[in-house]
Amino acid sequence: MAWQEVNFDGLVGPTHNYAGLSYGNVASASNRGQVANPLEGVLQGLDKAAHLRSLGLIQGVLPPHDRPHLSTLRAHGFTGSDAEILTEAWRSSPALIANVASSAAMWTANAATISPAPDTLDGRTHFTPANLAAMYHRSIEAPTTARILKVMFPEGERFTHHAPLEGGVHMGDEGAANHNRLCADYGEPGVELFVYGRGAFETAKELTYPGRQTMEASKALARQHGIKPGKALFVRQNPAAINAGAFHNDVVAVNNKNVFFYHEEAFTEVPKLQDTIRDAMDGTQVAFIEVPKAKVPLEDAVKSYLFNSQLVTVPGRKGMTLILPSEVKETPSTRLYVEELIATGGTIHHADYLDVRQSMRNGGGPACLRLRVALSDDDRAAMGGNTILDDARLETLRVWAKRHYRDRLMPDDLADPKLMEESFAALDELTQILQLGSVYDFQR
Predict the structure, then answer these.
(1) Are strands 179-182 and 232-236 parallel, antiparallel or unpaired?
(2) Which residue in the list 248, 265, 327, 404 is annotated as catalytic?
(3) Tens-digit pLDDT profile for residues 191-216
(4) Annotated catalytic residue: which of 126, 179, 368, 404?
C-alpha cells in the first residue's frame, strides 16, 4: 500500500489585508496599512499548488474561513441584520472588525496538529485543531477548522478528531507550525518532534515576543494522539529565534522524511537534540543540515523565510527539493547559501523559487500556506469532500477567484457591507465546488 505526504494549501481569503495584527511577526508589523491584493494572493497560492502538482506531488486545498465572522460579533452583543451588525461594530471598534475579518486562516500550517496512523497506538490518523490562543484574530478559527477537517477526514476506523486544547494561553497550541515528523518513509513509524516556546506556568523573562506554543500543550497533544512510547520528543525553541521574529518554529526549521534543515540558533541544546533524535529513530540515519549563523544571520533567515520553505521528495528527481519564496533569492546571504547547498550534491539537490508575495508581506511563506498529511492510498479513498486538485479543479478555482475577489483592499474597506456580501457569496460557491457542505456559520 503506497503512502504519500499530501499538502493541503490554504486559499487566500477575499478579505486578505494588511492590518498588522500578529505581534511578534516582523513582516506583518512592517507592512501594516499597505494596499493588499486578494485576487493576486489567491492566484499566487493556486500557482504554487499547480507547481507542486506539476512535480508529481498530490496537492489539495483548504478553504478560507467566513470573514467577517459575524458569530463572534453577535457574541459581543451586536444585533440586527448582517449589515447593521458590521456597521455598528465598526463604529464601536474598528480594531475588533480588523480581527474578525482577518484572512489569517489561509496559513493552514496553523490549522491543526496531525499524527499519522503509523505513529499512533490505535493505528488511526489523529487531528487536533489548534486553539491559536496567543492571538485574538486567530483564536476564533478552531470551530470552523474542526468542521472542515471532519468533512475531509470522516471520523471512523481511519481518522479520529479531538477538540482543541482548553486552557487559553497557558495551553497555547499553534498547530503543525511547531511540529515536525521524522521517518524513513511516510508509511513507516516516525518520531514526532514538538517544539515549544515556553513553559505554561513560567514567566519566560528572556522573551521579547510571546512564546506562543507551551510545553504543556505539546505534551497534551502527544498524549491525546496516543503516540507510541518513546516516539514523541519535546524541544524548546531558542528564545533568540523568537525575539528575532520566528514566532513559529517553521520560520527557522523544516524537515522531510529523515532530513532536518534548520538554523544554528533554532533550538536550545542542539547537540543534545541530535543525539535524542538519533536514539528515537532506532537506527534510521538522519541527515542534519545545520545552517550556521556566520553564513546566514538569524535576521536574514527570518526576513527571507529560508526555512519557511517546503522540503519535498519529487518523483524522478535525485535528492530532495526546496520550494522557496522568491525573497530567498533576493537576500544575498540566503541566495548564496542555497547555491552552495545545491552545489555540494548532498541530500538537497534542487531549489524551486515561487512568488507568494501577498502572503509573505503578511508574514507567511510557502510552509505557512500548507498543512501536511501523510496518507495511504486507502486513506485518500476514504476522504470526504472534493479538495484534492486536478487540472480541471485548478482552473475552476482560478475562474471562481477572478469572479469574486477584489484586486485592491485596504484595512478600512473591511467596514464595507458589500465586501462582506461578496465574501460570503464566494465562500458559499466554494463549498459547492469542494463539496464540503455547510461548514460556515452564515450557512447554518
Answers:
(1) unpaired
(2) 248
(3) 999 999 999 999 888 999 999 999 99
(4) 368
In sequence order, what are the residues at sequence separation of 6 or more whose Cβ sits closer than 8 angstroms to the Cβ of residue 294?
Answer: none
Report pLDDT digits (tens) over 221-250.
Answer: 999 999 999 999 999 999 999 999 998 999
Long-range contacts of 246-249 (CB under 8 A, 24+ apart): 246/298, 246/301, 246/302, 247/22, 247/24, 247/25, 247/209, 247/210, 247/212, 247/363, 248/109, 248/110, 248/174, 248/177, 248/178, 248/212, 248/213, 248/368, 249/177, 249/178, 249/180, 249/195, 249/213
pTM: 0.96
Concerning whether 248 is annotated as a catalytic residue, the answer is yes
Average pLDDT, whole number, for the chain?
96
Which grid cell is 405?
475577489
Instruction: Look up 368 and say whether it is catalytic.
Output: yes
Q: Which of 40, 174, 216, 264 is catalytic?
A: 174
What three-state secondary structure class fits 106? helix
What the chain holds in terms of domains, given with CATH numbers, is: 1-107+369-444 (3.75.10.20), 300-355 (no CATH)
Question: Could you report the per-residue pLDDT of 104-152, keeping only the tens digit for each?
Answer: 999 999 999 999 999 999 999 999 999 999 999 999 999 999 999 999 9
